[in-house]
């Protein structure tokens, strides 16, 4: 199994097209990625981290109240980014949204970050460890939060496993080859990444991260994260 000797800074996709139903009433007028955390929209924290590791092209998918995201972020110049938008006229779920955006992402492996996730994992470590040529992607896993106690997958010798124990939760952060989606036998307009991960699990790399991570899925989680981050910079 060989790996590319040098890794160019990849493009990245930030998933931001969800309705944020569990965040209502906060998301009735504001898309979830624009909800403020420690003084700035959640998605801007992700953009700053991507810019800090040298990412220059970012694709953001837009759905519910998406034009507000475009109006806030613009072309990304303030972060040194080239932001491009993939507009979804109807919900496509995670895999469908990425598949639609592939023409904007290019043919090389790209990072994917959920727009409603806070995480201080240093993605530079991944750039120093290129994907092997026969590996379709790498997933960041985290210890199970209280809202997902059963976890999603295990890790077996660095690879994703549906049977290995203990099980961990997918963080919403991954590094994927386009072929992971294009060569999946059940490609369709609207479908999720979970089934693709199950299909490719024996070939997908998986890494456990036990640092600071939060899936901002409810108003209470948003409040706790905001208070914690404000306290850390006070």
From TrEMBL:
<dbReference type="InterPro" id="IPR054790">
    <property type="entry name" value="MurU"/>
</dbReference>
<keyword id="KW-0548">Nucleotidyltransferase</keyword>
<dbReference type="InterPro" id="IPR029044">
    <property type="entry name" value="Nucleotide-diphossugar_trans"/>
</dbReference>
<keyword id="KW-0808">Transferase</keyword>
<dbReference type="InterPro" id="IPR005835">
    <property type="entry name" value="NTP_transferase_dom"/>
</dbReference>
<protein>
    <submittedName>
        <fullName>N-acetylmuramate alpha-1-phosphate uridylyltransferase</fullName>
    </submittedName>
</protein>
<dbReference type="InterPro" id="IPR050065">
    <property type="entry name" value="GlmU-like"/>
</dbReference>
<dbReference type="GO" id="GO:0016779">
    <property type="term" value="F:nucleotidyltransferase activity"/>
</dbReference>
<dbReference type="Pfam" id="PF00483">
    <property type="entry name" value="NTP_transferase"/>
</dbReference>
<feature type="domain" description="Nucleotidyl transferase">
    <location>
        <begin position="12"/>
        <end position="149"/>
    </location>
</feature>
